[in-house]
Design a protein that fits this description.
Strand content: 25-35%
Mean pLDDT: 86
Number of strands: 36
Strand order of the largest sheet: 16-15-17-18-24-23-22-20
Length: 760
């Protein structure tokens, strides 16, 4: 190394300069007599060599060490694997015996004691003797050793004694780069002689995000410790429903990776479980099943749009649907019917027949939304398919009807299965057109009671949203309806006209039908919302915003639900802290401001809450709370209950968002729920075997000892000597006065010789 600024590059440049000066001196001395030339060149060589050495400052670095008698730190494994009783004596009994032995030794007062699992924590032998904890969900052995060494800022730690079964959940083998800077690791192994007989699900890998109705692969690692091959049935459950079953062949004392496929059918968190049978002599039954959650999202929204005739309203909606890359649009324009007269046979027309049977029999369930836009079904002999559409909605589908002279009453939907799911009553087809259709322009009015509904609350601020509706271009014409259905909710109404049964005429109504959602827009001029008024006022983006929210609401986008609840994690240990936060609104999206709600934890295989508490919302309906996870492993739901009405009692029927199954939960009506999992085994108990090989590798790598807990030496017998670095010392031999004086002497000698022999 070189001490000159810029190091070796600068030294190299200086060397080139010295070589150049030597070459010039050789040329200049060529005219001298040989003895004088040799003398002058020799002095020049010495001068240039000394000049290079003094200026470049070459040096050498040496690291100095010292050996000290360091301090001792003892780490006790308090993970759940230590609690396994798979031999005599059990691992926990061996660990307690080690604690008792150390307590009886006088050298224990000079040692520092800690316990580890997922984290490293301080403790004392007295605390461990009173109650040896075995509740940690992970064994981070290697990481805890690194942490213990890193805590030694003064470099006084000499050795670490680790009392463990070696079942590290992060590392199967010791990392190649593991070093503790001279600190020795002495390993006291627990459960060395255990004979473990266990079938287990060692690992599970699945993408945490799945897509609705898209296959999702689950990779499961099944293993056995038995000395004979095993054939185990591997089952995949969604709730209590068996989704897949596959027989797995596992080699003796080995493991195999298996792929299973599931297809989510509902949005939100979905709970799944994989399991294998439990034998009578199975060491750890808890590791024979694993539960997991999948956050199900929608990859693409599949929309079927059927229109009765081309119009501006059709054009605007179709352009909007095609522009969104997240929408897969299947649309049909009805340009002619079987009753139309043409001058050419059907085979010569550039039109395709309306594929009613294919759409409404074979592929109906593949659509997320069905939209009838100014469409009358009768000319296409679709009467037999209307019950299928009704059943599709009742099972969870979405349906929207948009008005016009071929929709609602004029379309002949009165008394059909479609009317039973619509949020409004349909007038009979025999009603004169003058009464079934309302003429004239009008500005629809937001129904005050439903002003917070996401289809009309297009802006975050309530007043701004109402002003937005007032500034939109007016609609022209509307369909007449008889009434609002029991489950219907009117969002927009006509400012002047009335429904046939009285009350303001609904313009936009929504509702629920079974498990599905429906929308009725009694106008065919919503395209006007996509245009500003003469370019002077209005918001042209309101059209896109409205239809985007309409489709999301119809398809049950969780972000538009009136109430939401979430947990801070998806998985918890038994008795873990479950932090819950959410927002509570009623059916019309009015916040439950400063109200007391109920929170409950309900098991997946039951209806009776196992944990309950009350929580008070803020002015916006938001709330946070902390619950305690149940002890029993499995899937659970956090359920938010609405404020109980005065004098109300009994049970409320709730709908499971993930499975679609109904249940009855005692207490107030459920507003929202979310899944989480309580794990008993997890990664910690996936492989119950002790791993003395890892402990032995730790000891060998660091110069420590490997001993069994049943053959424990004295604390004083553990070597605590540590060789530590005192630092790196760098010497520059030519950075001294003698070197500088020698260089000066060589330069003076060369100068005097040159003067004597006539050289400048």
């Amino acid at each position: 190394m070189f001490g000159i600024p810029l190091g070796a590059p600068a030294a190299g440049l200086l060397l080139l300069v010295c070589v150049a000066l030597g070459w010039l001196a050789h040329r200049e001395a060529s005219a001298l007599a040989p003895p004088r030339r040799r003398a002058l060149l020799g002095v020049r060589a010495i001068s240039l060599t000394l000049l290079f050495l003094v200026c470049s400052r070459p040096g050498c670095a040496a690291e100095h060490h010292e050996t000290i008698d360091g301090r001792l730190r003892v780490l006790f494994d308090t993970s759940r694997s230590v609690d396994l009783a798979l031999g005599e004596p059990a691992r926990s009994a061996q660990a307690r015996a080690v604690v008792t032995t150390f307590l009886e030794q006088s050298d224990a007062s000079r040692a520092r004691f800690s316990r580890f699992g997922a984290e490293l924590a301080e403790t004392t032998l007295t605390e461990l003797s009173d109650a040896y904890p075995v509740d940690e969900e992970r064994t981070r052995l290697v990481e805890s050793l690194r942490r213990a060494a890193a805590d030694d800022a003064e470099l006084e730690l000499g050795a670490i004694v680790v009392v463990s079964d070696g079942a590290d959940t992060d590392f199967e083998e010791l990392p190649p780069d593991f070093q503790l800077d001279g600190v020795r690791v002495h390993a006291v192994a627990l459960g060395v002689d255990e004979d473990v007989r266990d079938d287990a699900i060692r690992g599970l890998s699945v993408d945490p995000v799945g897509y609705l109705r898209q296959p999702l692969r689950v990779r499961v690692r099944v293993a056995t410790t038995l000395d004979e091959p095993r054939r185990l049935p591997l089952r995949l459950f969604h709730g209590d429903e068996l989704v897949r079953e596959q027989v797995v062949s596992v080699p003796a004392s080995g493991e195999v990776s298996v792929s299973l496929t599931l297809t989510p059918q509902h949005l939100g968190r979905a709970l799944y479980r994989v399991s294998i049978p439990v034998d009578v002599d199975d060491a750890v039954p808890a590791n024979n099943q694993r539960s997991f959650l999948v956050n199900v999202r929608r990859d693409k929204l599949r929309v079927l749009l059927v229109t009765g005739q081309p119009s501006w309203d059709v054009r605007f909606l179709r352009v909007f649907l095609k522009r969104d890359p997240a929408i897969d649009l299947i649309s049909f324009f009805i340009l002619r019917t079987a009753n139309d007269l043409t001058m050419a046979p059907s085979e010569e027309l550039a039109l395709i027949p309306f594929p009613t049977d294919e759409l409404f029999s074979e592929h109906l369930g593949s659509f997320d939304v069905i939209i009838f836009q100014n469409f009358d079904y009768a000319p296409y002999e679709m009467g037999a398919y209307l019950p299928r559409i009704r059943d599709y909605v009742l099972r969870g589908g979405a349906f929207a009807m948009i008005g016009g002279d071929r929709a609602f009453g004029p379309g002949g939907y009165a008394g059909t299965p479609i009317e039973t799911i619509l949020p409004v009553g349909v007038p009979p087809e025999s009603l004169p057109v003058s009464r079934s259709l309302v003429e004239g322009r009008f500005q629809p009015r937001v129904v005050t009671a439903n002003r917070h509904h996401p289809l009309v609350a297009l802006l975050p601020d309530e007043r701004e949203s109402l002003r937005l509706w007032e500034g939109l271009s007016p609609l022209e014409g509307a369909n007449q309806v008889t009434r609002v259905s029991a489950l219907g909710r009117v969002l927009l109404e006509h400012p002047r006209e009335h429904a046939l049964s009285g009350g303001a005429l609904p313009v936009l109504a929504v509702g629920r039908a079974g498990e599905g959602r429906v929308l009725a827009l009694m106008a065919d001029t919503s395209w006007r919302w996509g245009m500003s008024t003469a370019g002077a006022s209005g918001d042209a983006s309101a059209y896109d915003r409205f239809w985007d929210r309409a489709l999301r609401w119809l398809t049950k986008d969780p972000t538009l639900d009136p109430a939401r609840v979430a947990t801070d994690q998806e998985r918890y240990a038994a008795h873990g802290r479950v932090r819950v936060h959410g927002e509570a609104r009623d059916e019309v999206h009015e916040p439950y401001a400063s109200r007391e709600l109920s929170l409950a934890i309900v098991p997946a295989d039951g209806d009776v809450p196992v944990v309950t508490r009350a929580v008070t919302t803020d002015a916006g309906g938001a709330f946070t709370a902390e619950l305690t996870a149940p002890e029993r492993p499995g899937g659970y739901r956090v359920v938010v209950g609405a404020p109980a009405a005065p004098g109300s009692t009994g049970a409320a029927s709730t709908q499971d968002a993930a499975t679609g199954s109904a249940s009855t939960t005692p207490g107030p009506a459920a507003l929202a729920s979310e899944w989480f999992v309580v794990e008993e085994g997890g990664d910690e108990l996936a492989d119950p075997r002790p791993r003395p090989a890892l402990l032995r590798a730790l000891a060998e790598r660091t110069g420590g000892r490997f001993v069994s807990a049943t053959a424990l030496p004295q604390l004083s017998d553990f070597d605590t000597r540590r060789t530590r670095s005192l630092g790196i010392a760098t010497r520059y031999p030519f950075e001294s006065w003698p070197a500088l004086l020698t260089l000066a002497g060589a330069l003076i000698l060369e100068w005097s010789l040159r003067r004597r022999w006539g050289k400048r």
